[in-house]
Amino acid sequence: QTTLRLSHWLPATHPMHDSIVAWGKSIEEASGGELTMEIYPAQQLGAAPDHYDMARDGIVDIGYVNPGYTAGRFPIYELTGVPFQANDGPKAGKAIHEFYKNGGYAEKEMGDVYFCLVNPHNPGRFHANAPIKVPADVKGKSVRPAHATMARYINSLGGTSVQVPAPEARDAISKGTADAVTFPYEAMKSFKMADVVKFHNDLPLYLSSQVMLINQNSYDGLSDTLKTVIDDHCTPEWSEKISEGWSTYDNEVRQEILNDSSHEVYEPTAEEVTLWRESVGPVMDAWKADAEKAGFDPDTVLADYEKALEANGVKY
Amino acid sequence: MSEKDLVAAGGFVVLFLLMIVRVPIGVAMGLVGVGGFGLTVGWSPALNLLATSPLRTVTDFNLTLIPFFILMGVLATRSGMSRELFRAANATLGSLRGGLGLATVGACAGFAAICGSSVATAATMTNIAHPEMKKAGYPDDVSTGVIAAGGTLGILIPPSVVLAVYAYITEQDVGRLFVAGIVPGILAVFMYMATVRLWYGGKLPAGAPFRLQEALGALSGVWAVVLLFAAVILAIYFGVATATEASAVGAVLTALIGIARGRLGLRSLLESLVEALRTSVAIYTILIGAILFGYFLAVTQVPQNLTQFLIGLDLGSYGTLALIMLLFVVLGCFLDAMAMIILMVPIVFPVILEMGFDPVWFGVIIVMTVELGLITPPVGMNVFVINTIARDVSLVTIFRGVLPFVVTDVIRLILLIAFPIIVLFLPQTMG
Amino acid sequence: MTPSRLTERVITVVERVAAVMLGLVTLLVFVSALGRYLFASPVPDAFDLSRLALAVAIMWGFASLGFRGNHIKVDILAEMLGAKARRVLDLIAWLGLLLFTILLTWKLGGRVLSQMPGGETTMDLRLPHWPFLACVVAGLVMAIVTTLIRLWLVLRYGEGLEPHETLKQDEAHGAGHE
Ligand code: NA
Ligand code: NA
């Protein structure tokens, strides 16, 4: 009889919490009740940016980590946050899993933990209190970015990144600290932002991909049967599956906003999309420089990532 | 009781033992937190908590407004704003019977509007108002009692360091909580003034007759306080600035005004910064420890079980609320306000939500409850501080003088529990 | 010069450096807020720089409190006891503080050393965190020393701890004085 403590930082009301619970249930059942999950939501056991260290150090057995919260720490993984790579959430989860884990990068960058799952949300977009139709519209604006790579993107467009925790993003907009945010649609509901941002650029932009990591000792201490149960739940297929609930919810919220006449959902023209895609150049260059500094060949890494995205039909 | 419950209960026992032998409260909580986590989960992960959590606490941007507000209060004190407030209040109210007492309450309220700490408000008013009241023939128990009670306005009327900490712990909007403190604060001012008149009025002398010229002259000195309150609280209310920005603006403006009026030199500026730093560090130490202790409690699942237990008692929402408040009053017998909020709020907060109470309203209620602890024996911080400044007045005398105000506080609490709208009306008008 | 006076002098310097840092952080947030409001351009990295610098100030201040003894604590039993018993209490209390500070320095210091240079960076300018963290650890090392000195002063000379939130006479008179 083994109990595994799993910690994440989303509120228990978030759709992702349900997906994590369901995943845990599946593990319990597959183990014939030998493995049980104790799930701690809402940062009860530690702050969101500390979750990697918590999983590595055994403070929890399983940690749900956003590598984007700690800029510079996982240079390869930061590629998954560069805009215009993947155009879907769940399938990108499978692709990133194949690229990062099966391609051996996880071993190099997160080698001190057992790498289990990838969980991206649906592509995030610009949501603002005034129109942002083209990249030039970001200039002079204060934007709350989703993660470090998006912060770099905002800065490269001549905007200013405003760092506030996600739950305070609404406040930052209503107080004028920020003019815009980058989020998936779902945040309009879960962070109650729908009444302060009325403009939505519908162009799918970037991913923010969480990972599920298991403490190495906790994993090594399991019997071979239980190890197999865990292995079976840490597959590219599970990365896709665990991401579906969040994605479905995101699509529902997008539809609600489309139906709500008080919101403007802007569909960029083909020329505008080209402008947006070209605007990512500096961010991609910066990422390449980081990857090179970390001892990787950026072009190989990028090619590997693109191959995985293509294989899953989600290459932008 | 499960093994985890036993470890948790033992944790509380050891915690109180360590605290009673004078181990700093934050350190006691940190040691027990790590120790308890070690027993429950394992020693290596428990020690590793120290590698992440304390650093996260001291680098948390959401907490930076606490040192800023503390600094603002220290600077306001050092640049003599409290004295001006007292002069203005006295010029306006002093001619009434018990006028000096009324003026003291008024000055405390004014100072509370720019200072986030009760102890600081009580301390500065003791220096200014106590000698004046003594000269006018006020009995010691009355004068110190008024100051002790008036001082508690410091954490009710915004800005308030205790409300800021409450907001942090419960993830509520600090601006909303500040605004929620305004009306109860004004109510407290009127009730304290009424207490001065109705309870003590008969034996208090009237001051010099009212002179318009003098009153206008004195009032013109308090523009700085009005400006600062506007820059901070109104900016928050109207959504011009976040609470953190407002706190930094408040601190810098206070310094600039002090320098411009020649009341703050380089030396006193430095001393103010040192004083604010010491107070901030003391609060951060408690926060570091409380967060570690909280992780220990979380893995023992005590808060969850306690919630179930309290709900299972079936006392109804108000019965449960009363029980929680009683717990705070009892703890207030030897813990200070900040420590109580940081230690106990995370444990009882889920229950409050479960009972359907408004978290902003509960913040104000619980701050008023811990305020009671500041002026009741055996440990009443405001009373202690007054005692260290007014050396010739005994603790017993001060506690005796503050008694009628305790009665007023209880009445006010009952009022706000019966009519939550008094608290919630103003924040509900915010965007 | 007595050990107590000497330490007092060193601590005063440490404390003042930390206090100035607190002042600078306040200014940084002020300027950034103003910049945002007036010119729609906050200071880049104001968020990360202010919280990291404040952490340094707090930890250096922690060293000061380890010496002075004015941490928030329950003084009620100490005040009921005689001088001798109180000295025992102070010794136990400060041993507790010492233990905590040593553990914290060991674990946090280990983590910071293991990732320097390198590791996390700020969001906008991508400045490394580690110089700030190294200063935080330096504050903790100082705190071990100052706590030890206080322990020795209690043991050898019977010098007690300052109760918190009580003002010294000169400060009390200074407060509110113009
Ligand atoms: Na106040
Ligand atoms: Na008390």
Alpha carbon gyration radius of chain A: 19 Å
How is the largest sheet of chain A built, in terms of strand order?
7-6-8-5-9-11
The fraction of residues in strands of chain B falls at under 5%
Distance between the ends of chain A: 45 Å
**Helix content range of chain A:** 40-55%
Q: How many DSSP E strands of chain A?
A: 11
Rg measurement of chain B, Å:
22 Å
Label the structural class of chain B: mainly alpha
SSE order of chain B, one letter for each helix or strand: HHHHHHHHHHHHHHHHHHHHHHH
Ligands bound to this protein structure: sodium ion
Q: How does the overall form of chain B come out from the CA principal axes?
A: globular
Q: What is the largest interface, and how many residues per chain?
A: B-C, 78 and 69 residues
Separate helix tally of chain B: 23
Q: What assembly state would you assign to the polypeptide chains in this entry? A: heterotrimer
Average of pLDDT of chain A: 95
The best one-word shape of chain A is globular
User: What is the mean pLDDT of chain B?
Assistant: 92
Give the uncertain stretches of chain A in residue-range form.
none
Query: What is the number of strand segments of chain B?
Result: 0
By secondary-structure content and strand pairing, the structural class of chain A works out as: alpha/beta
Main location (chain B): membrane
GO molecular function (chain B): transmembrane transporter activity
Function (chain B): Part of the tripartite ATP-independent periplasmic (TRAP) transport system.
InterPro entries (chain B): DctM (IPR010656), TRAP_DctM (IPR004681)
Would you give an account of this structure?
Chain B: The complex comprises the extracytoplasmic solute receptor protein and the two transmembrane proteins. Chain B: Belongs to the TRAP transporter large permease family. Chain B: The chain crosses the membrane at residues 7-25, 63-81, 101-125, 146-169, 175-194, 215-240, 246-264, 276-298, 318-349, 361-390, 402-426. Chain B: It is a multi-pass membrane protein. The complex is a heterotrimer of chains A (316), B (431) and C (178). Chain A is an alpha/beta fold. Helix content of chain A is 42%, strand content 16%. Chain A has 14 helices and 11 strands. In chain A, strand 1, helix 1 (15-30) and strand 2 (35-40) form a beta-alpha-beta unit. The radius of gyration of chain B is 22 Å and the shape is globular. Chain B has one domain (62-264, 301-428). Chain B is mainly α. Chain B has helices spanning 3-20, 25-40, 43-58, 65-78, 81-93, 99-112, 118-135, 140-151, 153-156, 161-170, 174-180, 182-200, 212-219, 223-237, 243-260, 266-300, 302-312, 316-331, 337-354, 359-375, 381-389, 395-418, 421-428. The longest helix of chain B has 35 residues, at 266-300. By secondary structure, chain C is mostly helical. Chain C has one domain. Chain C has 6 helices and no strands. Chain C has helices at 3-39, 46-68, 76-80, 83-114, 130-157, 169-174. In chain C, helix 1 (3-39) runs antiparallel to helix 2, helix 2 runs parallel beside helix 5 and helix 4 (83-114) packs antiparallel against helix 5. The longest helix of chain C has 37 residues, at 3-39. Chains in contact: A-B, A-C, B-C. At the B-C interface, helix 1, helix 2, helix 3, helix 4 and helix 7 of B face helix 1, helix 2, helix 3, helix 4 and helix 6 of C. One sodium ion binds next to loops of chain B.
